[in-house]
Each structure stands twice: as C-alpha cells, then as structure tokens.
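Continuing the series of single-chain predictions for the mutant panel. This is the parent chain; the variants come on the following pages.
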Amino acid sequence: MKTYGWHEIGSVPAAPGVYAWYYIPEITHFDLREMKSEVETLKSQEKIDQAKASLRQFLDRIVGFHAELSRLWSEPLGLDHGSKKN
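Parent structure:
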C-alpha cells in the first residue's frame, strides 16, 4: 500500500485503486472574527433574524460535516442514530 501526503497530491497515479483523503475541519480565528463581525453588523442594523440565520448557517456547515460523516459510516454498518429498531 502506498500512502500519499497532501504535498504529493499531484503525483497520485490516474489508475484504479482505493483512495481516501482525510481532512480535519477546523474553525480558525479568521472564521470566528468574520462571523462575529457579520453578526454584530446585522444586530446594529436591527436585523436580528438575519443575524440568527447567518450564525445558524455557519454552525450548520460545521456540524453538518460531522453529521454527514457519521451518516456515511453508520449506514453501511447498519446503524441508525435516529430511531430504535426492535
């Protein structure tokens, strides 16, 4: 088995095989500053619903990644996080 790092992505062969990429999502200080600035601006304009929606969308993007990853791993294993099966 050959392992490639991100810096070698251009040299991965164009051939059949099993390929997997691992990515750790992160929330950077930049992301937090931008989100805080956007929410504060919307609040100062008395656009509270838009501020809430913007924050919800930001969090959904982060949480959604983890939820999708969990779903992708659970379904093939016959696991269902949302309901009980007898």
